[in-house]
Structures are given as structure tokens and as C-alpha cells.
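Q: Here's a chain of 406 amino acids. Please give me its 3D structure as C-alpha cells.
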Amino acid sequence: MTIEVHVPALPESVTDATILSWHKQPGDTVKRDENIVDLETDKVVLEVTATAEGVLEQALFNEGDTVEAGQLLATLTEGSTSTAATTSAPAASKPIETKAEPASNKDADVLTPAVRKLVKEHNLDPTQIKGTGKDGRILKSDVMSYLDSREQQEETDKDSQAISQSVANMTTSERPEQRVPMTRLRARIAERLTEAQQTAAILTTFNEVNLAAVNKMRADYRDNFENKHDVRLGYMSFFVKASIEALKRFTAVNASIDGNDIVYHGYYDIGVAVGSPRGLVVPVLRNADQMSFADIEKNIKQLGTKAVEGTLSYEELNGGTFTISNGGIYGSMLSTPILNPPQSAILGMHNIQQRPVVENGEIVIRPMMYLALSYDHRIIDGKEAVQFLVTIKECLEDPARLLLDI
């Protein structure tokens, strides 16, 4: 029975997708729920899996092609063998001798019709194929393995040639350059950042925070926390908690603009900017105000792993009322983060540096971090933005406030 593989329903507001990579080629066996092809959208990579076990008969698009929801991608023949193989093998047939005289496999010239057809189609020399059947007989699986091995070797040779050519070009040219197409995700990032700068009145305010109290709490409870919750007690849970406290006090920072209306959100969905191999993504912690420190750390760890693996779902990336971006993990000392539309503000964390500060009239060394809050001046006044950032500073410098809700 032929099984049709279609482009799945795409996320809302996504009209098409790009064929990113085929994991199976015509003739390959596919198991149920095994990934056949990856589709890249503006935000996520969608895996298209098989609904039944079978053999991939036809792939209708090439990598890089654009497809729409519902389009036919490929066809499978249900079962463990392809139509070509099953229809060409008679119910009872005598082994057919070939003219080849193998040098190493005894009786390897006795091929089944299915094997003989593959050998003929691919113009193979049976003497080069190691048989694993009885008395060294060549099986269909032997031919497929040989083809896979040959294909891999050809790809390796191509890569080596390409690298050699690239090196040669760079050697002979004093101004080398390389042109590659922009990925859909990178194009979407560019579009959204340009949109933010063109539509919002972005302003940034700065402050610095002394993280000595946070460091002490982490040191005092690190082992107990990890043993109980099986997750590391990081900085991000403190910043999420502090941000939520500030958002509750200054509701405009948790709002967004929709046309001529201001939408005040009564919930706190915190986006956490994460770097991935495909670019910057912002998965969302839903109802973060209802999460414990452990819940926040576990969810951030899980979302970060998915970002690296490219398995984030559209739902995990959609929405968000406020975003936190930690450039400090890359060594950033200070920056002005750009808004994540339609949100009205974003908090930028930076590198922690041991710096001299004055406490009680004395110069002491403390772990200091610069904070940056970029905000949409259309709905957030400068006074609110400054007080918002001061609230985060106060919560972090006295973390007991987060636990006592004061």
C-alpha cells in the first residue's frame, strides 16, 4: 500500500517552509515515527515523520525548495521492501548466473533477481561486494550497504576537493569572500530587529548590581539545591524572580501596543534569549510567576538543550511579555539590547566583574554586573524604566525580598 507524506500544518502566521534536509533517500527503509525530512520555518525546524514502516519510494522536492502546508512531500510503500524489488522477484525462481567471476566470494555470482536488478541499475561489479549470505552469497542488504559506503566515500571526496579548491582560491586571492544564502531564521531575526527599530521609540537606561548576596546564597545552598532538585542553582532564576517582582509594580513594562491600544498583561511569560547553531532564539517560560527557583532552572535547562538540538516547538517560542538576554555568558561588558516586538521592554545582563566599590565609606571588592533596560518610550516613561531597574537591583542585592515577597 502506498502511503503519502504531506507537509504538516504550519504554525499560525507561517505560510510556507523550506526543505532543510532529507534524512532518507528513495529506496531507504523507514521505521514508524522515524524522521524523513526537516522543514525550516521562520522560527523552528519541523520534523516530518513516517506514520508507518515502509520504504521511501519517491521524494518530490529537493533541499532548498519551498513548500506549503498540505503539499505532497514523498511517498512510501508500506512494508519492508520497495515496489521495485517486490514486483521484480517471481514467486519461485531459479538462481541466475552472471558472467562475472568473483575473485573472493564462492558462488557469489549466483544472484537473486532483486540483487541482480540492483547490480544492473547501479552498474556495479559484484566482485567488489562482500556477501554475508550463506556460502558468501550476496544479499540485497549487502548491495545497499555497499551503495551507502560508496556514496559516503564520494561525499568525502567531494568535501576534500571543495576544501582543497577553497584553500587554493584563498591562496591565490588576496581578497577572498564566500556567498551563502541567509537561513529563514536569520532572515526573520533581521526582519524583526529592523521592525523594532523602525516602529518603537527605543531608549535604554543602565544600572549596576552587587551580586555578593546572590553569590553567598548560591554557595550556601548549592549542594542541597542540586541534590534535591537535580539541577544547578544558576543566576537566571534570581533574575527571572526579580524581574517578575518589578513587572508587578510597573505594569506598563509588561504591556504591549496593539494599534492604538495598550494591552496590559495580567500574566508573566518571560522570554529567555538563547544562542543556538541556527541563530538567536527566545523560548518562553509560561506563567513564570507561578514557578519556583527549581522550576525556572529546570525549564531553562530543558529549553536551552532544545535550542541547541533545534527541537524547540513553535509554541515554546511564541508570545512572551518580557525578555531577558544574558550577553554576559559571552563576555559582554555592556550593551543596549533591542526590543523583541511586540514587547515593550527587554533586560540585558552582562559579565560579572570583581570591581572596587564604596561601602560604608570604605573601598571593597565586589562582584558587579551592569544591567541595561531597553524600553519603548511610547508607553513607558523614563521614571518608570529607572524605577523598574532599581527594583531589580534591590531584589538582587537583598534576595530575601524575593522569598519574603517584600
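Q: Can you summarize the key feature?
A: Residues 241 and 291 are 9 Å apart (CA to CA).
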